[in-house]
Each structure stands twice: as C-alpha cells, then as structure tokens.
UniProtKB/TrEMBL annotation:
Belongs to the bacterial ribosomal protein bS18 family. Residues 39-59 have a biased composition (Gly residues). The gene is rpsR. Residues 1-61 are annotated as: Disordered. This is Small ribosomal subunit protein bS18. One of its GO terms (molecular function) is small ribosomal subunit rRNA binding.
Length: 131
C-alpha cells in the first residue's frame, strides 16, 4: 500500500525532479536490489554471529582437526634427500609452509624445517622461484 502512494505521480502538471539532472534515470540505492545496502558494523551481510563453536550455533563448515602426517605414518626421521616429500611442505614461491596450514606437529615441523634447509643448501630444493 505504501508503495502505491509513492509510485503515483504528483497531481500538479510539473514532473517531479529528484536531483539536479532529470535526464538520467534514477539509480537504485544498491547494485543488486535483492540485497540490502551495506550499513552497520557487519558490512553488507550483517554482523558476524560466530563460528562453528561460537555463540551463533553451528556454522556451515565443519573444520576437521589436522593430524600430523609423520605421526600417523610413524615416520621418525625426515630425510633431506626425499625431495618429493619435502616439496609438499614448501610453497610455490619457496617458503616453508607453517604448521597451522599443514597440520604437522611441533617436533616434526622442526625436523621438517631442518631437512628443507639442508636440501636447499645442497641444491636439491630451490631457495626461491625465478620470476
């Protein structure tokens, strides 16, 4: 009902002007009319309610606990000569991937780092990529 009253043209003979130039068509407030405009601290989607264990209840995604590959496969010594194994823990640019991303335990991350550095020193692994 409220939309009908606003949609009617003014009863006077002059056309309504919304801004300085009446040539251009009126743009909607947001690019997508089905979404509310961004306003407030949470941005366009509203405030965050928490993650899977947070106050917002269950989240969409369930993040599995990462398990150490070396502990599960009972690998105690990490050989610096095993380039295929070490390349899985080196990023594309040549950086050692942190354990929060790989899921390796602390002791094996230290051994892994030492093995990667040894392999770099004897030129089995590159220090950095060429660009």
């Amino acid at each position: 009902m409220a939309d009908e009253t606003q949609a009617k043209a003014p009863e006077s003979g002059a056309p309504a002007q919304s801004g300085p130039s009446s040539d251009r068509p009126e743009r909607p407030s947001s690019d997508r009319p089905d979404r509310p405009s961004s306003g407030g601290p949470g941005g366009p989607r509203g405030p965050r309610t928490g993650g899977p264990g947070g106050p917002g209840g269950r989240g969409k995604f369930f993040r599995r606990k990462k398990v150490c590959k070396f502990c599960t496969e009972k690998i105690d010594a990490i050989p610096y000569r095993d380039v295929r194994l070490l390349q899985g823990f080196v990023a594309e640019r040549g950086k050692i991937v942190p354990r929060r991303l790989t899921g390796v335990c602390t002791t094996h991350q230290r051994r892994l780092t030492r093995a990667i550095k040894q392999a770099r020193n004897i030129a089995l692994l590159p220090f950095a990529t060429r660009h």
